[in-house]
Structure to design on (358 residues):
């Protein structure tokens, strides 16, 4: 019998901030850019559960989050604390949590900075898997002061959906014979890959729940969505053969930054390029790589036109300074008429390392 656990840290960035600053515990906390009283750039990186009660969500424009926070404050609700993110701290905490999880399964897969899969099949029963999950939740809480939600299911798909069912600090078990009963009443949005656009398309056809989706013939789904229709047909039935494995190689490592004020200040932009290159190279090394061959940059202008440029070196790019030098060379034409004939100010920059080398 296959038993898979999906471990999902609760409001990870905001929870880490509260762990390191107890004054933030149980407060409405938003991690992201400076809101500048509603004029700030950037997005919400994370929101505590208290902040989510005000309608604030990850990936929301920080200006919108500030307006929601102000609306709540005017109603007498607790004020939101806006915190600038500290990715290095989050990576460090993630590594500590993953070190707790990794030895506890037959196989381990780090799915992102705040979630992982464990294959617990050798335990032989869901009852034993529940005990293991409870022990892991307790160890993470005791050692790191953080909570997580765990889903247990017969495959990765069901386990992931289950981990989101009772948050925060939840534990949801879906045995093989209960999969369809569990999934059927849910919105089609719980199916990985179904975003707002696909949801709208299906809603127009009166398909709103997983039960509705399951009622369609595979041929109909293929007609609408091509080969992905076959995948949807299987997922609506809670079927997935994906294995738990960390045997994958990241193809690139990148960072980007949205400026508070659109600018063409060369010194300032290159200073931020150097900082991004340093962060990218540090992440590259943490993931076990020593160098890269390709540097790619992103430039987004004030009018939102976005361009990318890349260069592949004959030799290895084996230091943060070398990565910066390659990125700076690619950025140079955007400071004059070569790539920016109208002198349009720049809103966002990005640096990415590709063709990674061990």
């Amino acid at each position: 019998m296959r038993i898979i656990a999906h471990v999902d840290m609760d409001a990870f960035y905001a929870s880490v901030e509260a762990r390191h600053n107890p004054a933030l515990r149980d407060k409405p906390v938003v991690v992201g850019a400076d809101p500048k009283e509603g004029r700030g750039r950037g997005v919400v990186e994370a929101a505590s559960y208290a902040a989510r009660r005000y309608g604030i969500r990850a990936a929301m424009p920080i200006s919108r989050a500030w307006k929601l926070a102000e609306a709540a404050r005017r109603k007498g609700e607790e004020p939101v604390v806006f915190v600038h993110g500290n990715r290095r701290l989050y990576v460090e905490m993630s590594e500590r949590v993953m070190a707790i999880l990794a030895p506890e399964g037959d196989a381990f897969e780090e799915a992102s900075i705040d979630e992982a899969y464990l294959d617990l099949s050798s335990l032989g029963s869901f009852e034993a898997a529940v005990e293991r999950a409870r022990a892991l939740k307790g160890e993470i809480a005791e050692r790191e002061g953080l909570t997580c939600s765990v889903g247990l299911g017969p495959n990765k798909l069901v386990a992931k959906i289950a981990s989101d069912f009772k948050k925060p600090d939840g534990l949801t078990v879906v045995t093989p014979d209960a999969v369809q009963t569990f999934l059927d009443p849910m919105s089609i949005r719980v199916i990985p890959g179904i975003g707002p656009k696909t949801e709208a398309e299906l809603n127009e056809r009166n398909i709103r729940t997983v039960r509705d989706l399951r009622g369609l013939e595979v041929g109909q789904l293929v007609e609408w969505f091509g080969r992905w229709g076959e995948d949807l047909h299987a997922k609506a039935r809670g079927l997935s053969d994906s294995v738990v494995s960390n045997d994958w190689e990241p193809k690139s490592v990148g960072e980007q930054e949205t400026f508070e004020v659109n600018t063409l200040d060369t010194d300032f932009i290159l200073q931020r390029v150097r900082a991004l290159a340093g962060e990218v190279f540090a992440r590259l090394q943490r993931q076990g790589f020593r160098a890269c061959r390709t540097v790619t940059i992103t430039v987004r202008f004030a009018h939102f036109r976005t361009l990318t440029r890349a260069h592949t070196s004959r030799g290895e790019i084996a230091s943060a300074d070398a990565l910066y030098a390659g990125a700076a060379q690619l950025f140079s034409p955007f400071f004059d008429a070569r790539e920016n004939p109208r002198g349009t100010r720049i809103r966002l920059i990005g640096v990415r390392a590709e063709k990674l080398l061990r």
Observations:
- Residues 266-286 form the longest helix (21 residues).
- The mean pLDDT is 93.
- The first strand starts at residue 4 and ends at 9.
- DSSP finds 13 helices and twelve strands in the chain.
